[in-house]
Amino acid sequence: MRFRLPELPEEAFDPEPPPILGSWRNVYITALAWLAFLILLFYGFTRYFS
Amino acid sequence: MNPVDWVVMVVAMVAIPSFGLWRGRRNRRNINDYLLASKTMPWYAMGLSIMATQASAITFIATTGQAYVDGMRFVQFYFGLPIAMVILAATAVPIFHRAGVYTAYEYLERRFDAKTRALTSIVFLVSRGMAAGIAIYAPAIVMSSIFGWQDRVTTLIIGLVCVVYTTTGGIPAVTWTDVLQMSVILSGLLVALVTVVSLMPHNVSFTDAVYLAGAVGKLNVVDLKLDWNNRYNLWSGLFGGTFLFLGYFGCDQSQVQRFLTGKSVAQSRLSLLFNAMAKVPMQFFILFVGAMVFVFYLFNQPPLLFQKNAMKELAKQPGYTQIQERFDSAFAKREHAAQSLNAARKAGDTPGLTAAVSDYRAAQHDTDAARAAGIRLYQKTEGQSGFSDTNYIFLSFVTKYFPVGFVGLVIAVIFGAAMSSSSGELNSLAAVCVMDIYRRHFRPNASDHHYLKASRVFTALWGTWAVAFAQYARHLGSLVEAVNQVGSFFYPVMLGTFTLGFFFKGVRGGAAFWALLIGEATIVACALFTKVAFLWYNVIGAVVVVIFGVLISKLAPYARER
Q1: How many domains does chain A have?
Q2: B269–A4 CB contact, under 8 Å
Q3: CATH for B3-297+400-475, options being 1.20.1730.10, 1.10.260.40, 3.10.20.30, 3.40.50.150
Q4: Which of A35, B443, B454, B495 could form a disulfide with B82 if both were Cys (CB 3.0 to 4.6 A apart)?
Q5: Which site among A2, A13, A25, A45 would you substitute to test the B interface, given the most B Cβ atoms closer than 10 Å to its Cβ?
Q6: ipTM of model
Q7: Chain A contact for B483 (CB, 8 A cutoff)
Q8: Is B98 in contact with A13 (Cβ distance < 8 A)?
Q9: Spatial distance between the Cα atoms of B200 and B206, rounded to a whole number of angstroms
Q10: Residues 6+ apart with CB under 8 A from B97
Q11: pLDDT digits (tens, 9 = 90+) for B21-70
């Protein structure tokens, strides 16, 4: 029983690209980078004000 | 409440749903319109609606109070949300869109079998059905204590407005109402922050206030220590939170239905990614308002207990006077220590600053101890071991110190949040009843018009149930808390089942069904026999379902059959 992603490639049923950043992969990376930035910011905030 | 506040509140309560009905007026001709808005929704409307559905009234009341009492560490609970949003945008959104389903559980029948669909639908109906009542009841009980309003009348009014626009307009009205409600909620929060900062003493600037909150640990946003029994730290938020939000946004029809209304896969994805970017800062902001309320009360004496009725009862008890005197004295010392700290910091007096911080923290400790003694005395005399007045802190502050008009705005925000989460629940409950139960098992070949009528009837019935549940919720006592935790018990197994469906093509219905039951039993065992914090249930439950789904498929031949 192997872990498999959905069989069709994404482009087969969703040709529409995101309105910004060129590809969905870039949008996802941006969202995760934003989370990493927020955690670092909050960590700095916690350290500075405690 | 001042007449101006009443006007603001009533206008908001009438105007916002009216806007939703007007904006969605073209989309209520058939069942596709009513349940999916004919897939015409833009990303920003879905995104705001998803946020509004998740943020209940109690989120705003309790979260600010939590920051006052416990600091801002609760924000870590949301760290898993952006990760979950990215995973769902990449997987669940295209799969559900391609499947062309009305409900998430409809997909499970296509992938597994009818009994898995029926089981997950029933689990959803039971858990969300009760939650819909609690969403209305929770703010009403707080209002009843603060304003003396009858909670039955409050629940009836909130419920009635909510049922009218949800039944009439379906998901288009719910979504557009949520858009405006979310805008009012965000504006209300901004007004709350500006107001609380402007109410500080003249010699306390915004930066001073932030420093004073941080010095006693109220700005403890990130905790890196891995502790399995600690509910909120970076790791439980990132791992447990990711699984929790995957379950909530990917398997709960009240959320799935939002992104099924998208014009395209791209629009639905953007709505989730908008949430990924906006949710954590929004929760930070709400908690920050609570931390500023704490600073405000450094210079204005707070009551020993924020719940008025509890305070009245406490004042009658022997031993109260000593506790109140102790609290008054601790408050005076803390105020003095806070002023000294502020002065030392402005003067750049480093040795003086160290001593002032130490005094300030000791005074805070004494104030907390006096308040805890008051709470213990109340618990002992009233026999309420779980008593907490956290939910009353923010509204108590608002009603006492906010200018005329702003109080009405904040109450409108609270009501708006209650209605937006409840309306989303009612609409999704009706969708599951009609599509997964009624059409599937009772009337499979009726006309579109028949299902539209049935959806309206089910929405009204669930609305009536929610209001009735809210009317009697006060008699349910600790059951209310249990209902609030129901989601944490069921989302993980739903998530495990959908994961099997999406990614493990060899797993069939029988295996998924039994794995779901084993996963649920594991979670119940964790709750009964371990002290593992509840966020970890989401990881454990989902992983157990996936492992057993795969194992049963390999070991039991019948489970491989469709």
Answers
A1: 1
A2: no
A3: 1.20.1730.10
A4: A35
A5: A45
A6: 0.84
A7: no
A8: yes
A9: 9
A10: A13, A14, B260, B262, B264, B265, B268
A11: 887 777 667 888 888 888 888 999 999 988 887 777 777 788 888 889 88
